[in-house]
Design brief:
Blueprint (H helix, E strand, L loop, with lengths): L5 H18 L10 H18 L3 H21 L25 H18 L5 H21 L1
């Protein structure tokens, strides 16, 4: 006989899955939320609008950023191990020196296109928000003109 008791064999068989579970690699982090890029662009547009004294546009784009960021945070639950949550109160982006209304209109058109291109890939509950942002950008471009 080999010298292994029945108890030793059963213990080894029962503990094998535990050893594998303890040594497996953690799952990969989820991909970045596409709405986060829209929120960042909205903040950049707000800074540009402020630089060209388009206060209503700045307020609208700041609101877009806040709503998009809230959706990103709702959809991405924080984990207990990550105590440093992404900050929504980070400093606003600085507008380039010599910013013009034409640059603002181009940025708004780019934001509208970015949002519209994202729409087909979104679930219905997020598509409404992104569609409203795209429509808002279109109306802001018209108001600038």
């Amino acid at each position: 006989m080999i010298g292994l008791s029945r108890r030793a064999v059963l213990l080894a068989a029962a503990s094998a899955p535990l050893v594998v579970a303890c040594t497996s690699t953690p799952p990969a982090p989820p991909p970045p939320d596409p709405l986060a890029a829209l929120a960042d662009a909205a903040l950049e547009d707000a800074a540009l609008a402020t630089a060209v004294d388009a206060q209503e546009t700045a307020a609208a784009r700041t609101e877009h950023a806040a709503r998009l960021r809230a959706e990103v945070e709702r959809a991405t639950p924080s984990t207990p191990s990550s105590s440093a949550a992404p900050s929504t109160t980070s400093s606003a982006p600085q507008a380039p020196a010599g910013a013009t209304r034409e640059q603002l209109a181009a940025a708004l058109q780019a934001a509208q296109k970015q949002a519209a291109d994202l729409l087909p890939s979104l679930p219905a509950h997020r598509a409404g928000l992104v569609g409203a942002v795209a429509a808002g950008c279109a109306s802001l471009v018209e108001a600038l003109g």
